[in-house]
């Protein structure tokens, strides 16, 4: 191919990588605050050292400078808050500083503002690290793509890409779009989206246009914006606009998650709404202490200000948001989308999990293992009808019947079925050769045709069920053609994950399945699941989840979103597996594991538990500090010391929360197995 390259502002991979750790505005803002605060400290020290040696005006000038530098950012923030009609604890600090200054204690006022702004900027800096970790996600997608138009290659902004455009991806480049691989082979590092440590092999899709929907494409044929190409070149047909890629959606949802309040945060907010006015009233009362105690007003005022600093619940206010932010950020980097503090905290405290079976605990890739024609029926007649009908279904069982059935049929021609209709959660029907054909599980047949089923067919079905097979009965017109047996395999590593969930504190694990009870029992036994409930319709699954909620309080439902969406919606936390690419699962779930890997469930559960314990520690630190400082301030603790402890505890809770960013990465079960 003769390719002409039209240059445009090209973007090197180094540049893209750089953006990743580029600090966000939050951090650089905090840097200015930090510098101002340190300068304030210097001016303060200068004032102290020169006091008495230089004219008093010079010393006061230095103190004034220290006040100004230390107070600027706080004042600006307070003004902004007031402007927006918000009340902020930080303003109390300014009041205290102003109070100290009024008392002629310029140095002390400056010390207070210096320490306060130092603590504040460190806190902002730390919070910036957590939110930076989230915003960095947005920069994972490159800004430019190489679009191929016939033989012409052109660099275009990714926003300009249209669906069905062809983009070329060079080795080691970041993928610019969600799309279908149409040429080239490579292995792609999908960690930025799915958190999987092992690259995924990609190859061109077989067959021609129109390609299947992006959501159901095989992982080896589809790529995601933001992932990193390996050593091969790829040609990709764009499947989604830049604003609708999986990455863009995740970024949007994580941003929304940040603003969702968790139960504990709602509690601390309520607490603050009562506590802060109570503090203000008490401080007002303390200012009047000179009326009853034998002391000058100045002393009463000083004490009141010290109590104000001691009692301001800044650390409490930041305890939960900092932990939630870090937890959500850590999860996102591990390929798990957690939609806010609510799901995170609930997951951190619940002890009961319900699992869907097919595609969640099992591979979801069944094989056709048994073909048992009814007496006098040819195997090919049975398979011919089954394949004809199942071609019209997107159920995993159907895929297996078609694939393995066709293989067994060889050259035998398969008829075309019409009027295909799914019999919700139990089978499928259609018309072949002018006669109605019904395929489905024995339950369906018992309900519909109870008396007409020949004993030979019922016996064969029972035999297969006892052997742990999923059974499909086949009837064409009035004739029973026989039964098919299928088997799905448990996921590799699923047993280990179940065991790990238990060590993380999960007490009860229930499996819900539309498959027959004996298959459900077999899988449950193989994986160490406590209870198996089989033969369920999607609405039965939802009913069981509701019943479990009533007895257990909180229940998480893990599914793939195929026939368990109602159950997931009813659970305290709905967890979708393999959500990358599936917009529906992504939107509907409270927690979405982007990778199709159970190992990530243990990761996010562990992370949630850790987050909950960090939140608990933070509440102890912040409330404990207030409980200690208030009596100390009443007994004469200097304001400076009160500020040190107050700000110290604030910084401590944030740093404690940041530890979550270092929570160990998910273990890939597939890889481990
Ligand atoms: N296309 C189909 N062909 C034959 N049988 C079907 C078909 N669709 C559903 N069934 C029958 O209905 C049952 C329930 O299907 P459903 O999709 O609800 O659950 P499932 O595939 O068993 O998965 P899970 O364990 O996740 O509930 C299947 O086990 C099967 O017996
Ligand atoms: Zn504070």
TrEMBL record:
Compartments, record wording: Cell membrane; Membrane
InterPro entries: ATPase_P-typ_cyto_dom_N, ATPase_P-typ_P_site, ATPase_P-typ_TM_dom_sf, ATPase_P-typ_transduc_dom_A_sf, ATPase_P-type_domA, Cation_Transport_ATPase_IB, HAD-like_sf, HAD_sf
One Gene Ontology MF term: ATP hydrolysis activity
Pfam families: E1-E2_ATPase, Hydrolase
Broad EC category: translocase
Gene Ontology cellular component annotations, sorted alphabetically: plasma membrane
Keywords: ATP-binding, Cell membrane, Membrane, Metal-binding, Nucleotide-binding, Translocase, Transmembrane, Transmembrane helix
Taxonomy, superkingdom: Bacteria
Domain P-type ATPase A: 140-254
UniProt-listed Enzyme Commission number(s): 7.2.2.12
Catalysed transformations (reactions): Zn(2+)(in) + ATP + H2O = Zn(2+)(out) + ADP + phosphate + H(+)
UniProt main location, coarse: membrane
Sequence intervals crossing the membrane: 91-119, 271-293, 305-329, 619-645
Family: Belongs to the cation transport ATPase (P-type) (TC 3.A.3) family. Type IB subfamily.
Protein name as it appears in the record: P-type Zn(2+) transporter
Organism: Mesorhizobium tianshanense
């Amino acid at each position: 191919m003769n390719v002409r390259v039209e240059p445009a502002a090209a973007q090197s991979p180094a540049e893209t990588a750089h953006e990743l750790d580029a600090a966000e505005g939050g951090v650089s803002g905090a840097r200015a605050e930090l510098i101002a605060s340190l300068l304030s400290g210097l001016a303060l020290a200068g004032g102290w050292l020169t006091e008495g040696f230089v004219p008093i005006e010079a010393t006061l000038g230095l103190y004034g400078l220290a006040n100004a530098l230390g107070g600027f950012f706080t004042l600006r923030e307070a003004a902004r808050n007031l402007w927006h009609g918000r009340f902020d604890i930080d303003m109390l600090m300014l009041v205290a500083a102003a109070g100290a200054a009024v008392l002629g204690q310029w140095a002390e006022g400056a010390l207070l503002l210096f320490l306060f702004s130092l603590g504040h900027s460190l806190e902002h800096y730390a919070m910036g690290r957590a939110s930076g970790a989230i915003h960095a996600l947005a920069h994972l997608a490159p800004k430019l793509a190489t679009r191929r138009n016939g033989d012409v290659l052109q660099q275009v902004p990714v926003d300009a890409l249209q669906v069905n455009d062809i983009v070329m991806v060079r080795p080691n480049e970041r993928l610019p779009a969600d799309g279908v691989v149409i040429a080239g082979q490579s292995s792609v590092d999908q960690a930025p989206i799915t958190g999987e440590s092992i690259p995924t092999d990609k190859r061109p899709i077989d067959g021609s246009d129109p390609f299947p929907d992006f959501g159901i494409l095989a992982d080896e044929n589809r790529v995601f914006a933001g992932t990193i190409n390996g050593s091969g070149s790829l040609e990709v047909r764009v499947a989604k606009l830049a604003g609708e890629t999986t990455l863009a959606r995740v970024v949007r949802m994580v941003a929304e998650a940040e603003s969702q309040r968790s139960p504990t945060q709602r509690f601390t907010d309520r607490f603050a709404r009562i506590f802060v006015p109570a503090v203000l009233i008490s401080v007002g009362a303390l200012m009047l202490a000179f009326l009853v105690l034998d002391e000058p007003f100045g002393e009463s005022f000083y004490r009141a200000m010290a109590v104000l600093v001691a009692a301001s619940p800044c650390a409490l206010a930041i305890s939960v948001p900092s932990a939630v932010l870090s937890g959500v950020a850590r999860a996102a980097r591990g390929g798990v989308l957690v939609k806010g503090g609510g799901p995170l905290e609930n997951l951190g405290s619940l002890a009961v999990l319900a699992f869907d079976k097919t595609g969640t605990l099992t591979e979801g890739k069944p094989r056709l293992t048994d073909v048992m024609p009814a007496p006098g029926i040819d195997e090919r007649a049975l398979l011919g009808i089954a394949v004809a009908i199942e071609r019209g279904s997107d159920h995993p069982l159907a895929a297996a019947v078609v694939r393995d059935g066709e293989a067994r049929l060889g050259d035998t021609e398969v008829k075309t079925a019409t009027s295909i209709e799914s019999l919700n959660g139990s089978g499928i029907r259609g018309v072949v050769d002018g006669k109605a054909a019904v395929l489905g599980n024995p339950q369906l047949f018992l309900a519909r045709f109870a008396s007409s089923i020949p004993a030979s067919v019922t016996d064969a079905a029972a035999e297969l069920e006892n052997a742990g097979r999923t059974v499909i009965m086949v009837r064409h017109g009035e004739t029973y053609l026989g039964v098919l047996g299928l088997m799905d395999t448990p996921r590799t590593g699923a047993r280990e994950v179940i065991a790990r969930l238990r060590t993380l504190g999960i007490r009860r694990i229930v499996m819900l399945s539309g498959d027959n009870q004996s298959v459900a029992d077999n899988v449950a036994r193989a994986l160490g699941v406590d209870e198996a409930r089989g033969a369920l319709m999607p609405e039965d699954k939802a009913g069981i989840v509701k019943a479990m909620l009533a007895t257990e309080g909180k229940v998480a439902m893990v599914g793939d979103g195929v026939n368990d969406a109602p159950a997931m919606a009813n659970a305290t936390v709905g967890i979708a597996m393999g959500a990358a690419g599936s917009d529906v699962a992504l939107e509907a779930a409270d927690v979405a594991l982007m990778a199709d890997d159970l190992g990530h469930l243990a990761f996010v559960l562990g992370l949630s538990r850790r987050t909950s314990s960090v939140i608990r520690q933070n509440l102890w630190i912040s409330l404990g500090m207030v409980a200690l400082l208030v009596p100390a301030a009443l007994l004469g603790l200097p304001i400076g010391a009160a500020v040190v402890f107050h700000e110290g505890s604030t910084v401590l809770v944030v740093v404690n929360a940041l530890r979550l960013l270092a929570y160990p990465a998910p273990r890939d079960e597939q890889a481990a197995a």
